[in-house]
Amino acid sequence: QKIEWKRLKDAPSETQDGITHLIAANIGTPQDLQAVLDNGGDGIGLFRSEFLYMDATDWPTEDDQFAAYQSVVAKMVEKPVVVRTMDIGGDKKLPYLKLPDEMNPFMGFRAIRISLQRTEVFRTQLRALLRASAFGNLWIMFPMIATLAELRAAKAVYYEERQRLIDEGQTVGEVKLGMMVEVPATAVMADQFAKEVDFMSIGTNDLIGYTMAADRTNEQVSYLYQPYNPAILRLIKQVIDACHHEGKVAAMCGEMAGDQIAVPLLVGMGLDEFSMSATSMLKTRALFRRLDSQKMARLVDRAIQAQTNEEVVQLVDDVVF
Ligand code: PEP
Ligand code: MG
Asked: Ligand 2 centroid vs 87 CA: distance in angstroms?
Protein backbone atom coordinates (compact mmCIF):
# COMPACT_ATOMS: atom_id res chain seq x y z
CA GLN A 1 0.00 0.00 0.00
CA LYS A 2 2.85 2.38 0.92
CA ILE A 3 4.34 1.77 -2.53
CA GLU A 4 1.05 2.60 -4.21
CA TRP A 5 0.87 5.85 -2.21
CA LYS A 6 4.41 6.81 -3.25
CA ARG A 7 3.33 6.67 -6.88
CA LEU A 8 0.84 9.44 -6.10
CA LYS A 9 3.53 11.94 -5.12
CA ASP A 10 3.07 14.01 -8.27
CA ALA A 11 -0.55 13.11 -8.96
CA PRO A 12 -3.31 15.72 -8.64
CA SER A 13 -5.34 15.65 -5.41
CA GLU A 14 -8.63 14.86 -7.08
CA THR A 15 -11.69 12.77 -6.53
CA GLN A 16 -13.00 10.05 -8.83
CA ASP A 17 -15.25 12.63 -10.50
CA GLY A 18 -12.35 15.03 -11.04
CA ILE A 19 -12.91 17.60 -8.30
CA THR A 20 -9.56 18.96 -7.08
CA HIS A 21 -8.78 19.89 -3.51
CA LEU A 22 -5.43 20.92 -2.05
CA ILE A 23 -3.59 18.51 0.19
CA ALA A 24 -1.25 20.60 2.29
CA ALA A 25 0.99 20.06 5.28
CA ASN A 26 1.22 21.31 8.83
CA ILE A 27 4.77 22.23 9.76
CA GLY A 28 6.45 23.45 12.92
CA THR A 29 9.88 24.51 11.67
CA PRO A 30 11.59 25.10 8.30
CA GLN A 31 13.32 21.71 8.82
CA ASP A 32 9.97 19.98 8.34
CA LEU A 33 9.87 21.14 4.75
CA GLN A 34 11.74 18.24 3.17
CA ALA A 35 9.06 15.77 4.25
CA VAL A 36 6.42 17.98 2.62
CA LEU A 37 8.28 17.98 -0.69
CA ASP A 38 9.00 14.22 -0.46
CA ASN A 39 5.31 13.52 0.10
CA GLY A 40 4.04 15.70 -2.72
CA GLY A 41 2.33 18.44 -0.70
CA ASP A 42 0.25 20.97 -2.65
CA GLY A 43 1.21 23.63 -0.11
CA ILE A 44 1.66 24.40 3.57
CA GLY A 45 -1.73 24.84 5.24
CA LEU A 46 -0.37 25.61 8.68
CA PHE A 47 3.09 26.88 9.53
CA ARG A 48 3.05 27.08 13.32
CA SER A 49 5.24 30.13 13.91
CA GLU A 50 5.52 29.43 17.64
CA PHE A 51 8.80 27.55 17.26
CA LEU A 52 10.52 30.86 16.46
CA TYR A 53 9.48 32.12 19.86
CA MET A 54 9.76 28.91 21.87
CA ASP A 55 13.28 28.08 20.68
CA ALA A 56 14.57 31.54 21.58
CA THR A 57 15.75 33.16 24.80
CA ASP A 58 14.27 36.52 23.86
CA TRP A 59 11.79 37.87 21.30
CA PRO A 60 13.01 36.87 17.83
CA THR A 61 14.03 39.83 15.69
CA GLU A 62 12.34 40.86 12.48
CA ASP A 63 15.35 39.72 10.45
CA ASP A 64 15.49 36.29 12.12
CA GLN A 65 11.81 35.76 11.41
CA PHE A 66 12.11 37.05 7.88
CA ALA A 67 14.88 34.51 7.17
CA ALA A 68 12.71 31.62 8.40
CA TYR A 69 9.57 32.63 6.50
CA GLN A 70 11.48 33.55 3.37
CA SER A 71 13.23 30.17 3.20
CA VAL A 72 9.94 28.31 3.42
CA VAL A 73 8.00 30.32 0.82
CA ALA A 74 10.96 30.29 -1.56
CA LYS A 75 11.35 26.49 -1.34
CA MET A 76 7.65 25.96 -1.91
CA VAL A 77 8.00 28.04 -5.10
CA GLU A 78 4.52 29.26 -6.05
CA LYS A 79 2.61 26.87 -3.80
CA PRO A 80 0.65 28.54 -0.98
CA VAL A 81 2.23 28.76 2.48
CA VAL A 82 -0.16 29.70 5.28
CA VAL A 83 1.68 31.12 8.26
CA ARG A 84 -0.21 31.42 11.49
CA THR A 85 0.80 34.33 13.68
CA MET A 86 2.09 33.56 17.17
CA ASP A 87 -0.11 31.12 19.08
CA ILE A 88 1.46 31.31 22.53
CA GLY A 89 -0.49 30.69 25.72
CA GLY A 90 -2.66 27.72 26.60
CA ASP A 91 0.01 25.09 27.18
CA LYS A 92 2.73 26.98 25.26
CA LYS A 93 4.83 29.24 27.46
CA LEU A 94 7.74 31.58 26.78
CA PRO A 95 10.47 32.08 29.40
CA TYR A 96 10.78 35.76 28.50
CA LEU A 97 7.05 36.49 28.56
CA LYS A 98 6.03 36.65 32.18
CA LEU A 99 2.32 36.14 32.54
CA PRO A 100 0.28 35.69 35.69
CA ASP A 101 -0.87 32.11 36.36
CA GLU A 102 -4.34 31.43 35.07
CA MET A 103 -7.15 29.23 36.34
CA ASN A 104 -8.05 28.27 32.75
CA PRO A 105 -5.10 28.80 30.40
CA PHE A 106 -7.05 27.47 27.41
CA MET A 107 -9.69 30.09 28.03
CA GLY A 108 -7.15 32.69 28.92
CA PHE A 109 -4.55 35.01 27.54
CA ARG A 110 -3.32 33.32 24.39
CA ALA A 111 -2.68 33.72 20.66
CA ILE A 112 -4.25 36.78 19.04
CA ARG A 113 -5.24 38.05 22.47
CA ILE A 114 -1.57 38.44 23.34
CA SER A 115 -0.69 39.82 19.89
CA LEU A 116 -3.32 42.54 20.15
CA GLN A 117 -2.03 43.58 23.54
CA ARG A 118 1.69 43.29 22.80
CA THR A 119 1.38 45.04 19.49
CA GLU A 120 5.12 45.72 19.15
CA VAL A 121 5.66 41.94 19.06
CA PHE A 122 2.80 41.54 16.58
CA ARG A 123 4.09 44.34 14.34
CA THR A 124 7.54 42.77 14.21
CA GLN A 125 6.06 39.46 13.09
CA LEU A 126 3.81 41.05 10.49
CA ARG A 127 6.69 43.06 9.02
CA ALA A 128 8.82 39.92 8.74
CA LEU A 129 5.93 38.11 7.05
CA LEU A 130 5.21 40.96 4.67
CA ARG A 131 8.83 41.18 3.60
CA ALA A 132 8.92 37.40 3.04
CA SER A 133 5.72 37.61 0.98
CA ALA A 134 7.73 39.09 -1.90
CA PHE A 135 9.48 35.72 -2.33
CA GLY A 136 6.57 33.34 -2.81
CA ASN A 137 2.88 32.70 -2.20
CA LEU A 138 2.43 33.66 1.43
CA TRP A 139 -0.87 33.70 3.29
CA ILE A 140 -1.29 34.93 6.88
CA MET A 141 -3.85 33.76 9.40
CA PHE A 142 -4.73 34.83 12.91
CA PRO A 143 -5.27 32.18 15.62
CA MET A 144 -8.07 32.03 18.21
CA ILE A 145 -10.18 34.81 16.78
CA ALA A 146 -13.40 35.06 18.79
CA THR A 147 -14.98 38.33 17.67
CA LEU A 148 -15.20 40.56 14.62
CA ALA A 149 -13.60 43.33 16.68
CA GLU A 150 -10.46 41.21 17.15
CA LEU A 151 -10.32 40.34 13.47
CA ARG A 152 -10.69 43.98 12.47
CA ALA A 153 -8.07 45.08 14.99
CA ALA A 154 -5.58 42.48 13.72
CA LYS A 155 -6.24 43.48 10.11
CA ALA A 156 -5.81 47.16 10.95
CA VAL A 157 -2.34 46.51 12.42
CA TYR A 158 -1.49 44.42 9.37
CA TYR A 159 -2.50 47.16 6.92
CA GLU A 160 -0.57 49.79 8.90
CA GLU A 161 2.62 47.75 8.71
CA ARG A 162 2.04 46.99 5.06
CA GLN A 163 1.70 50.68 4.26
CA ARG A 164 4.75 51.51 6.37
CA LEU A 165 6.89 49.01 4.43
CA ILE A 166 5.63 50.35 1.12
CA ASP A 167 6.43 53.91 2.24
CA GLU A 168 9.94 52.71 3.12
CA GLY A 169 10.30 51.44 -0.43
CA GLN A 170 10.27 47.74 0.47
CA THR A 171 8.66 45.14 -1.79
CA VAL A 172 5.68 43.22 -0.46
CA GLY A 173 3.69 40.49 -2.21
CA GLU A 174 -0.02 39.83 -2.60
CA VAL A 175 -0.93 38.30 0.73
CA LYS A 176 -4.17 36.47 1.45
CA LEU A 177 -5.45 37.22 4.95
CA GLY A 178 -7.43 34.72 6.95
CA MET A 179 -8.41 33.49 10.35
CA MET A 180 -8.60 30.22 12.18
CA VAL A 181 -11.96 28.91 13.28
CA GLU A 182 -11.22 27.38 16.67
CA VAL A 183 -13.70 29.22 18.84
CA PRO A 184 -17.30 28.01 18.38
CA ALA A 185 -18.56 31.62 18.32
CA THR A 186 -16.75 32.20 15.02
CA ALA A 187 -18.20 29.05 13.47
CA VAL A 188 -21.68 30.20 14.47
CA MET A 189 -20.98 33.65 13.00
CA ALA A 190 -19.07 32.35 9.98
CA ASP A 191 -21.37 34.18 7.55
CA GLN A 192 -20.24 37.52 8.99
CA PHE A 193 -16.56 36.62 9.31
CA ALA A 194 -16.41 35.26 5.76
CA LYS A 195 -17.15 38.73 4.39
CA GLU A 196 -13.97 40.10 5.99
CA VAL A 197 -11.30 37.49 5.19
CA ASP A 198 -9.86 35.81 2.11
CA PHE A 199 -9.98 32.38 3.72
CA MET A 200 -10.89 30.53 6.88
CA SER A 201 -9.02 27.56 8.28
CA ILE A 202 -10.87 25.33 10.70
CA GLY A 203 -8.73 24.30 13.67
CA THR A 204 -10.62 21.24 14.76
CA ASN A 205 -8.24 20.36 17.58
CA ASP A 206 -9.40 23.35 19.57
CA LEU A 207 -12.85 23.65 17.97
CA ILE A 208 -13.89 20.16 19.08
CA GLY A 209 -12.50 20.71 22.57
CA TYR A 210 -14.29 24.01 23.04
CA THR A 211 -17.55 22.81 21.49
CA MET A 212 -17.75 19.63 23.54
CA ALA A 213 -16.13 21.30 26.59
CA ALA A 214 -13.81 18.31 26.84
CA ASP A 215 -10.03 18.05 26.96
CA ARG A 216 -8.93 15.01 25.03
CA THR A 217 -5.83 14.59 27.18
CA ASN A 218 -8.02 14.19 30.27
CA GLU A 219 -8.80 10.50 30.48
CA GLN A 220 -11.99 11.05 32.45
CA VAL A 221 -13.63 13.11 29.74
CA SER A 222 -11.78 12.18 26.54
CA TYR A 223 -14.79 10.08 25.45
CA LEU A 224 -16.54 13.40 24.86
CA TYR A 225 -13.94 14.52 22.37
CA GLN A 226 -16.03 13.41 19.38
CA PRO A 227 -14.86 14.61 15.95
CA TYR A 228 -17.83 13.08 14.13
CA ASN A 229 -20.49 14.24 16.52
CA PRO A 230 -23.19 15.81 14.29
CA ALA A 231 -22.82 19.00 16.33
CA ILE A 232 -19.24 19.30 15.10
CA LEU A 233 -20.15 18.32 11.54
CA ARG A 234 -22.87 20.95 11.39
CA LEU A 235 -20.48 23.65 12.58
CA ILE A 236 -17.87 22.63 10.02
CA LYS A 237 -20.41 22.55 7.21
CA GLN A 238 -21.70 25.95 8.20
CA VAL A 239 -18.20 27.41 7.99
CA ILE A 240 -17.51 25.84 4.58
CA ASP A 241 -20.88 27.00 3.22
CA ALA A 242 -20.31 30.52 4.56
CA CYS A 243 -16.90 30.72 2.86
CA HIS A 244 -18.29 29.53 -0.44
CA HIS A 245 -21.25 31.88 -0.25
CA GLU A 246 -18.73 34.73 -0.15
CA GLY A 247 -16.43 33.17 -2.74
CA LYS A 248 -13.72 32.55 -0.13
CA VAL A 249 -11.43 29.58 0.45
CA ALA A 250 -12.44 27.03 3.11
CA ALA A 251 -9.53 25.15 4.66
CA MET A 252 -8.94 22.89 7.62
CA CYS A 253 -5.70 22.41 9.53
CA GLY A 254 -6.78 20.40 12.57
CA GLU A 255 -6.14 16.66 12.88
CA MET A 256 -9.51 15.95 11.35
CA ALA A 257 -8.32 17.07 7.89
CA GLY A 258 -6.23 13.91 7.58
CA ASP A 259 -8.60 11.57 9.37
CA GLN A 260 -9.83 8.76 7.15
CA ILE A 261 -13.40 8.81 8.48
CA ALA A 262 -13.65 12.59 8.29
CA VAL A 263 -12.10 13.06 4.84
CA PRO A 264 -15.05 11.57 2.88
CA LEU A 265 -17.41 13.88 4.77
CA LEU A 266 -15.18 16.91 4.17
CA VAL A 267 -15.01 16.07 0.46
CA GLY A 268 -18.81 15.93 0.48
CA MET A 269 -18.91 19.37 2.10
CA GLY A 270 -16.56 20.74 -0.56
CA LEU A 271 -13.65 21.70 1.69
CA ASP A 272 -11.01 23.33 -0.53
CA GLU A 273 -7.82 22.67 1.40
CA PHE A 274 -6.93 19.78 3.70
CA SER A 275 -3.85 20.42 5.83
CA MET A 276 -2.31 17.58 7.83
CA SER A 277 0.95 16.01 8.93
CA ALA A 278 3.19 15.37 5.94
CA THR A 279 3.07 11.63 6.53
CA SER A 280 -0.74 11.52 6.05
CA MET A 281 -0.81 13.32 2.71
CA LEU A 282 -0.31 10.47 0.25
CA LYS A 283 -2.71 8.22 2.08
CA THR A 284 -5.31 10.98 1.86
CA ARG A 285 -4.64 11.52 -1.84
CA ALA A 286 -5.19 7.81 -2.39
CA LEU A 287 -8.49 8.03 -0.52
CA PHE A 288 -9.62 11.07 -2.57
CA ARG A 289 -9.24 9.07 -5.75
CA ARG A 290 -11.79 6.54 -4.55
CA LEU A 291 -14.42 9.12 -3.62
CA ASP A 292 -17.25 10.53 -5.69
CA SER A 293 -18.07 14.04 -4.45
CA GLN A 294 -21.80 13.89 -5.27
CA LYS A 295 -22.11 10.63 -3.42
CA MET A 296 -20.19 12.11 -0.49
CA ALA A 297 -22.49 15.15 -0.47
CA ARG A 298 -25.44 12.78 -0.04
CA LEU A 299 -23.55 11.04 2.76
CA VAL A 300 -23.09 14.42 4.47
CA ASP A 301 -26.88 15.02 4.31
CA ARG A 302 -27.38 11.82 6.25
CA ALA A 303 -24.48 12.38 8.64
CA ILE A 304 -25.66 15.77 9.83
CA GLN A 305 -29.09 14.26 10.53
CA ALA A 306 -27.58 11.42 12.54
CA GLN A 307 -27.79 11.46 16.31
CA THR A 308 -24.44 10.26 17.51
CA ASN A 309 -20.73 10.15 16.77
CA GLU A 310 -20.89 6.34 16.44
CA GLU A 311 -23.77 6.48 14.00
CA VAL A 312 -21.72 8.75 11.73
CA VAL A 313 -18.73 6.41 11.85
CA GLN A 314 -21.03 3.56 10.85
CA LEU A 315 -22.52 5.53 7.97
CA VAL A 316 -19.11 6.42 6.52
CA ASP A 317 -17.87 2.91 7.03
CA ASP A 318 -20.84 1.43 5.18
CA VAL A 319 -20.60 3.78 2.23
CA VAL A 320 -16.84 4.17 1.82
CA PHE A 321 -14.94 1.29 3.37
C1 PEP B 1 -6.23 23.45 15.93
O2 PEP B 1 -6.62 23.96 16.97
O3 PEP B 1 -6.88 22.60 15.28
C4 PEP B 1 -4.92 23.81 15.38
C5 PEP B 1 -4.55 23.41 14.17
O6 PEP B 1 -4.09 24.54 16.17
P7 PEP B 1 -3.13 23.85 17.24
O8 PEP B 1 -3.25 22.36 17.08
O9 PEP B 1 -1.76 24.36 16.97
O10 PEP B 1 -3.73 24.38 18.51
MG1 MG C 1 -5.47 25.53 17.94
From this structure: 8
